[in-house]
């Protein structure tokens, strides 16, 4: 087993003193820690809750340009990199800077070699990318693909060993409550305040804590013509607070993988064997990224934390963030046309509208047994797989303990709501109803959008009825303004169906509001579930 420290005698969890609590009242919060943490339940007033985090010194790196020689060197290297300057351009720019800026800044670069050497020194301080070659067999031919990964656990060690981040890591599951005048109501705002984290910590040995990875994968186009594609994978650490992990600064998300893409083939595209080949290549490639955490998910990794306690960190995947196309790949289901198109549960395709019923959650054990059956008996296995909408491929996430892909796949708010339910369905239907009333109705809607009060961080539109938008953020902002700009156009008198549509859109906006909340309570979760039934 690996360890990040030796020769130290850490304090035991039982020796930690219980924190001072105050009597329960309206203005109090209660924090219940996981029993294995050795920490007593605390009750704090509104004025003191969360102040410990506020007392931490902000993450201020006095020399953020290190290992560059100075800030000016770093800024120049960043400029040259962002501008994609070649050697001659870089040398010309350096000569110009030395002519006009000498004495106004300390600049040590004299040639492109200096910049390149500085880049190399900086890169050597972080976990580098590694190249792997994987082989997949198709039609009796071995096909090879290149995968580039930054070993996931090595990236995690970069975070763990950074002294500026050390005090911000959260290890123990917590249950948070706010007194509402009658009782304590639980609320959720970070991963470690939810039940999943609590349940995982309960399954670990004493002094074992979860180390959470959040992974995002999305195939994208690198050219406007769409002919050049890429498949990057990004990682974030779920043990860091949201205001750190959801940035591109220190402790924020980083690209950790570059997956191969099976080329399009007009003769093979759409064939079951070629689609399965793409899934095999994806999961074999992703395995190269996960290899370093598979072991530590089982054995743990001893780490001396900033509070002087040695904890055993058990790696697991907290969230898999992707749109539906990637979710199908991650869960190895067959997509929208299969019998069970949901990557999480076994709801039949003809019951997707039924939000009032509950269907069995998919399980790795069931999927694995179907794949094993397929290997022994193709006909019987294919029937079992087809019934569940699965593909005959081994899922890489089965190898990572506590990382059931059907539990870790997260709701894709942007594509499901703003681009999907609203952009592709409700908004298009609304425009059809407006068009049916004539051009004057459409113009009235556009004029009211143009007159809509401008707000910070809210896109303003001069017209919307005759424009097609694909940007999810713009579609979201249109939905926020739509009721105000159409309520006197799609009236019950002039267009009864359009008026009913507006009521449906109002319910959709309520659901979108609940989904968008950064802090949830037991009440808001129940209200959101109830609104889903109203929308149905």
Low-confidence segments, given as residue ranges, are 1-21
Mean pLDDT: 88
Give the % helix. 40-55%
Strand count:
14
For the CA atoms, what is the radius of gyration?
A: 27 Å
> How large is the share of residues in beta strands?
15-25%
Largest sheet: 7 strands, mixed
Strand order of the largest sheet: 3-4-11-10-7-13-12
What structural category do the secondary elements indicate? alpha+beta
Morphology: globular
Number of helices: 17
Query: Alpha-carbon distance between the termini?
Result: 52 Å
Give an account of the 3D structure.
A hairpin with a 4-residue loop joins β5 (174-179) and β6 (184-188). By secondary structure, the protein is α+β, with helices and mostly antiparallel strands. α13 (413-436) packs across α15 (472-486) and α13 packs antiparallel against α16 (496-516). The protein has helices spanning 51-55, 71-82, 87-101, 112-124, 152-160, 195-203, 242-245, 272-299, 324-331, 364-376, 378-388, 405-408, 413-436, 439-450, 472-486, 496-516, 522-535, and strands spanning 28-33, 42-45, 130-138, 141-149, 174-179, 184-188, 208-217, 220-221, 229-230, 232-237, 254-258, 301-304, 310-321, 520-521.
């Amino acid at each position: 087993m690996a360890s990040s420290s030796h020769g130290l005698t850490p304090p035991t969890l039982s020796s930690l003193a219980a924190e001072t609590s105050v009597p329960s009242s309206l203005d109090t919060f209660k924090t219940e820690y996981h029993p294995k943490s050795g920490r007593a339940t605390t009750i704090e007033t509104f004025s003191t809750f969360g102040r410990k985090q506020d007392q931490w010194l902000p993450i201020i790196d006095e020399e953020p340009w290190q290992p560059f020689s100075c800030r000016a060197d770093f800024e120049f290297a960043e400029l040259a990199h962002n501008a994609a300057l070649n050697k001659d351009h870089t040398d010309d720019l350096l000569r110009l800077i030395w002519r006009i800026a000498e004495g106004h800044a300390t600049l040590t670069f004299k040639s492109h070699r200096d910049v390149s050497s500085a880049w190399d020194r900086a890169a050597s301080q972080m976990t580098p990318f590694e190249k792997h070659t994987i082989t997949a067999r198709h039609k009796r031919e071995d096909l090879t693909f290149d995968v580039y990964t930054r070993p996931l656990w090595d990236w995690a060690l970069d975070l763990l060993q950074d002294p500026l981040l050390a005090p911000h890591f959260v290890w123990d599951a917590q249950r948070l409550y706010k007194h509402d005048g009658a009782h304590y109501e639980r609320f959720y705002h970070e991963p470690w305040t939810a039940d999943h984290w609590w349940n995982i910590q309960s399954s670990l040995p004493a002094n074992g804590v979860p180390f959470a990875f959040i992974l995002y994968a999305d195939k994208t186009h690198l050219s406007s013509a769409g002919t050049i594609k890429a498949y990057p994978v990004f990682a974030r650490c779920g043990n860091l607070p949201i205001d750190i992990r959801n940035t591109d600064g220190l402790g924020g998300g980083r690209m950790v993988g570059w997956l191969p893409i099976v080329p399009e083939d007009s003769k093979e595209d759409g064939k079951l064997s070629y689609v399965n080949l793409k899934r095999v290549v994806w999961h074999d490639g992703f395995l190269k990224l996960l290899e370093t955490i598979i072991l530590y998910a089982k054995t743990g990794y001893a780490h001396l934390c900033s509070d002087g306690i040695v904890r055993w960190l058990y790696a697991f995947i907290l969230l898999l963030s992707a749109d539906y196309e990637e979710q199908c790949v991650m869960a190895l289901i067959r997509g929208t046309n299969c019998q069970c198109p949901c990557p999480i549960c076994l709801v039949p395709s003809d019951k997707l509208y039924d939000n009032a019923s509950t269907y069995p959650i998919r399980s790795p054990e069931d999927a694995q047994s179907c794949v094993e059956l397929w290997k022994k008996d193709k006909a019987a296995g294919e029937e079992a797989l087809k019934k569940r909408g699965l593909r005959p491929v081994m899922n890489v996430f089965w190898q990572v303990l506590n990382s059931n892909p059907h539990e870790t796949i997260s709701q894709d708010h942007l594509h499901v709501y703003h681009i999907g339910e609203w952009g592709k369905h409700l908004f298009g239907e609304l425009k059809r109803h407006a068009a049916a009333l004539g051009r004057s109705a459409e113009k009235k809607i556009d004029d009211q959008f143009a007159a809509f009060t401008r707000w910070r961080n809210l896109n303003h539109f001069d017209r919307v009825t005759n424009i097609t938008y694909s940007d999810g953020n713009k579609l979201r902002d249109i939905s926020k303004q739509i009721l105000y700009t159409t309520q006197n156009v799609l009236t019950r008198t002039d267009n009864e169906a359009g008026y009913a549509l507006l009521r449906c859109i109002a319910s959709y906006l309520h659901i979108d509001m609940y989904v968008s909340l950064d802090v949830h309570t037991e009440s808001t979760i129940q209200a959101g579930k109830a609104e889903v039934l109203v929308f149905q």
